[in-house]
Amino acid sequence: MAHLQAARLSGGRSGRLPPSHDRLFRCVSAPLLPRRPRGSKGFVRTRATTPSSAIARVASSKRAASGGKVGAALTLTEPQVAEVPSLRELRQAIPKDCFEPDTRESLKYAAVDLAWMFGCFAASPFVAEHPILTLPYAAVTGLAMWSVFVVGHDCGHGSFSKSNVLNGVVGHICHAPLMVPFYPWAYSHKQHHRFHNHRTKDMSHPWMKAEEYKETNAVVRALALDHWIGLYLGFPGYLLMEPEWSSTDGSHFWPWSRLFDRAPKNERLKCAVSSASCIAFLAGTFAFAGGPVNWAIEYGAPYLVFSWWLFTVTYLQHHDHDTETFEEGEWEYVLGGAETIDREFGLGIDKVTHNITDCHVAHHMFTDMPHYKLERATEAVRGVLEPRGLYKRRDTRDFVRKVFTLHEENGHCIDASADGSRPRATRAELEALLPNNLVLTSDEKRQ
């Protein structure tokens, strides 16, 4: 290419969805809800005006080699970075059959994972009689629950089968035991994909500047955004809480939640159906356990492990010290998606959890591919993005250490520095809300 054009990168055609791909997001018709608190503008965690750090490095090396002349040719030793590819180019690189779900194959995966999970639940009374087995039981069952979630996740995207009815039925069977309202979660999750790494329109893990971090409720900051306990309770908190007291998108259980303010009218009814399925299953677990202590062992413990897996995988997919976010006018679909990270967890975990860990970039670009075809799609997408310096793949076999360390250093503050310098809830803030507070804050632990 002749030269890099930052303006073209930040506002060019490459981030717009071609008409042939509009069907990917036709189901998401409502404008996205602005994230609270509002009012922040400006490009976040970028270098100059160029959105991609890989492109910025090449631009910098070109300027240095040419005495500051941006139009100078690249040397043979430098990566040949072109403009961000179009969504059409990426899609054409992927084998067409990757976009065709095989209903029998999907049902096979669902049956195996559900049998694994319910088999563990069936053995739980024995564990309750021998509490020493609680930790291994919770570890195995929690991982099974996470694998079941991934199958239900395909249902939410419509990549489980071509039947919306079957997707809805299997999605509820998979998600109700996990206390995840299927339809509301599918709705918010589609918004997350549609605007991945858009600083104000992305959903799920919040992107927050330092000043927004400070304005968030101190208790939420201490327990969810700063403290390690957020890795276990962050996801149920995200599903339950309204944004007035948190940094969430709105309750996924309450039909009159702010989450549905601009959603199609039937989303509120669908929320009621999905919430009822979760409540019914939860009531069943209490009846089956026969007491709060047994319930904590048989269901509560594996649920916390499942919640940890969900937080860990999704947080690491979209966070690292070099992760970029983009403001309105600078964000592009492909550019935002390229900030997703394929992480290899190893130990067979990638396979057991249906490659949701190490094949996530391709999935984020195209949600209509079933999980069992993502490995082939990833090779194709990697072949387009990697030569341009736009593909992130990282060995994360130390994922346990990585998630706790990164969450401690960055939390959800996109202005955080690599040494963990960012706003944190102080004891004074907490005592103003909770006079009898006994929480040891992150600031005090670091002193």
TrEMBL record:
CDD domains: Delta12-FADS-like. This is Fatty acid desaturase domain-containing protein. It comes from Pycnococcus provasolii. One of its GO terms (molecular function) is oxidoreductase activity. Residues 135-391 form the Fatty acid desaturase domain. It comes from the Eukaryota. Pfam families: FA_desaturase (PF00487). Residues 1-20 are annotated as: Disordered. One of its GO terms (biological process) is lipid metabolic process. Signal peptide: none annotated.
